[in-house]
Amino acid sequence: MRAVRIEGTGDPEVVGVERVEDPAVGAGDVLIEVVAAGVNPIDVATRNGTVPTGLPAVLGWDVSGTVRDTGEDVTRFGVGDPVIAMSAQAATGRGTHAEYVALPESLLAPAPRELDQVEAAALPLAGLTASQTVTELGSPSNGAEELLVVGAQGAVGSLVVQLARLNGWRISTFVRPSDVTRKPPRGVLRQYSEEHPPPPAGFSAVVDTAGVPEHLRSVCDEGRYLTTTPFAQPEPSRGVRIVLIGVEQDGDELARLGTLVDEGSIEPGKPSAVVDFERADWAHRTLENGGTRGKLILVP
Questions:
Q1: Where are the domains of the chain?
Q2: pLDDT tens-digit profile of 17-76?
Q3: Running DSSP on this structure, what letter comes out for residue 69?
Q4: How many helices (H) and strands (E) are present in the chain, helices listed first?
Q5: Beta strand segments in 105-169, E
Q6: Are the CB atoms for 120 and 112 separated by under 8 Å?
Q7: Which fold has domain 2-122+270-299?
């Protein structure tokens, strides 16, 4: 099969498409024929060596595809089922940027009916990160508590806003000046930007999905600062509790997110570009340069 692979770490030019062996389907595994796979910052960090992985490596954490085979003891999925999954490639070595990937059944979820399979590829990593962040955040203790979401225009941030709203939070956002809208999006009280910064110590909690640790100043004393970016954590001060969110593989949780999508309760962002495997190096370069709106998606 064809796969997007790196032999060593470095600039986007180390990313290439190679012929590799088809994955073995073990007991409890499901073989997925990949329709689409998202490119995420973790893929960039793995490729440039910031996040270690075994080499050579097939990259990719997100996958949307169709079941083509199942191993012994698989009971929830059958051949032909449309599915989505997240594979923690850096830890497991099972990358999704390939024509096929075999994953444990426990990591899979039915693909949302309201999304096509390319759109569905944008959900797994971003959705699980957002969901686990909001679970850690919990519900507000009273109706006056307010949350600031930094990077709310991104794939993770936009889902944090939607899920936190379902949990009862009053939400403001920090976005690029170009992303400030005349009317705040649904569920958002106020929009802040570099041109109109948020007030200091004005929020019970901050969720930082963009790696801007300066927003620690926005949290009230003894509040909470949750970040999804391990390389840009603030130094604790004023009794603020710093929480780093490390996303975990979870097919059941992903299925619940798919149900929320089908019910219309949440809406993942649309892909910003869909390109074939041979342009994976372009996708890495574009993501690394910043400024994209929506996920970059690879298709075989």
A1: 2-122+270-299, 127-244
A2: 999 999 999 999 999 999 999 999 999 999 999 999 999 999 999 999 999 999 999 999
A3: E
A4: 7, 16
A5: 108-110, 146-150
A6: yes
A7: Quinone Oxidoreductase; Chain A, domain 1 (3.90.180)
